[in-house]
Amino acid sequence: MKNNKKLRSWLDKFNLDHPLVIAGPCSAETETQMMDIAEKLKDSDVSIFRAGIWKPRTRPGMFEGVGAIGLKWLKKVKEETQMLTATEVANANHVKLALENDVDVLWIGARSTVSPFIVQEIADALKGTEKIVLLKNPVNPDLALWYGGIERLYSSDIKNLGVIHRGFSTYSKSKYRNNPEWQIPIELQNKFPDLPLICDPSHICGRRDLLQDVSQTSLDLNFDGLMIESHVDPDNAWSDAAQQITPKVLIGLMKDLKIRKGTFKEESYLNKLAKYRTKIDIADNDILEILSKRMTIADKIGKIKKEQNVAVLQSKRWNQILGKMILDGKEKGLSEEFVLKIFKAIHQESINHQKKIINS
Ligand code: PEP
Ligand code: MN
Questions:
Q1: Contact, 162 vs 132, CB < 8 A?
Q2: Which band of pLDDT confidence, cut at 50, 70 and 90, is reported for residue 5?
Q3: 157, 137, 153: which is closest to 145 by C-alpha?
Q4: Bridge partners of 21?
Q5: How many Cα atoms sit within 13 Å of 306 on the Cβ side?
Q6: Candidate from 111, 113, 163 with most ligand 1 atoms within 8 A of CB, to mutate
Q7: Which residue puts its alpha carbon closest to atom 6 of ligand 1?
Q8: Of 25, 166, 207, 274, which sits most exposed with the smallest number of CB within 10 A?
């Protein structure tokens, strides 16, 4: 896709001096619930009211959305609050119904983005639309699949396109429901600098206490907006209860966000610095994660050594590792002195871990 400046125009039309905010319940449940939430959000910085009416659920038998009746409730929200409305579409029939009922923003969910067939079906059904279309990243950390979805929508002449970063599912446990893997949206942003990029902290975090921090990180990385789930009675929500917050808490969260002024075009020195510092923080965090993983493996080796009654220090193996790391490091622009220092320290920490295990 070409770097098309027109892509930003739908976002610029909102004429905001703060990031775009899309908020509302994970799922539409009842008309009263929808109107209640919308009423409490309408005088805030929220521009677009979201509610899922067709819900993709991992396991059958869970609440799968109220279906088409929810479109009437979205219409009522728009009439009574002037907020625009947004819902998820996952097939051509959803698109047809959402367009007939004048939903303003249609988003494609993470479970749909993984399937080129589904994205193509939706792209065909949306052909030439003036509506805003937002594509979430695929569930798995596959940048090419995300690009592919953007290309399919763009080829369908969808002018008002944007993307949503909602994190990636991983096999290993982490504090997030879906790992942010910030380097992936950053890469996407570098490739398509004019494609509006929205962060969905709710689905990244999966829990309320992390929302503020993830929202702030996304703004520090120059994201254009946020999509946050909000419910009047979060604990009793019919889906994603643990991650939803009340409108009041959401308004507080927005108030506490530090917004760095300055546009993409003329980023100030300080903005640039803040953006790179955030990237450094993320990289440092990744280094710690990897070191901790390495020590867990060393512990496992320690257990085997204990069972076999062999010495902790295996000099021959260690010299081989070191030689290889010095060569690999050189290729990556790291000096021999630095690589030696780092790996000696890592090795010493592994030995300390293993000694503890052998003496336990
Ligand atoms: C949602 O926004 O409620 C949703 C189902 O999101 P995702 O596709 O990111 O899981
Ligand atoms: Mn949800």
A1: yes
A2: low
A3: 137
A4: 46, 226
A5: 15
A6: 111
A7: 109
A8: 207
Distant-in-sequence, close-in-space partners of 135: CB < 8 Å, separation ≥ 6: 107, 108, 113, 119, 146, 149, 150, 153, 161, 162, 163, 164
Print burial letters for 264-288: b (CB count within 10 Å at least 16), e (below 16): eeeeeeebeebeeebeeebeeeeee
Say if ligand 1 is within 6 A of residue 166 CB. Answer: yes
Ligand 2 centroid to Cα of residue 200, in Å, is 10
Provide the token pair at 252. Answer: 């507080």
Task: Please tell me if the CB atom of residue 24 comes closer than 6 angstroms to any atom of ligand 1.
Answer: no
Mean pLDDT confidence for 248-268: 79
Query: Domains of the chain, with CATH numbers?
Result: 5-259 (3.20.20.70), 271-358 (1.20.59.10)
Interior angle at CA 78, CA 74 and CA 84, nearest 5: 95
The one-character DSSP state at 160 is: E
The tokens of 340 are what? 């030696």
Instruction: Read off the DSSP letter of residue 210.
Output: G
**pLDDT tens digit string along 69-85?**
999 999 999 999 999 99
Ligand nearest to the CA of 237: 2
Does the Cβ of 110 fall within 6 Å of ligand 1?
yes
Using CA positions, which residue lies closest to atom 8 of ligand 1? 109
The answer, yes or no, to whether any atom of ligand 1 lies below 6 A from the CB of 131, is no
pLDDT in tens, 135-154: 999 999 999 999 999 999 99
Full-prediction pTM beyond 0.70? yes
Q: Average pLDDT of 271-300?
A: 87
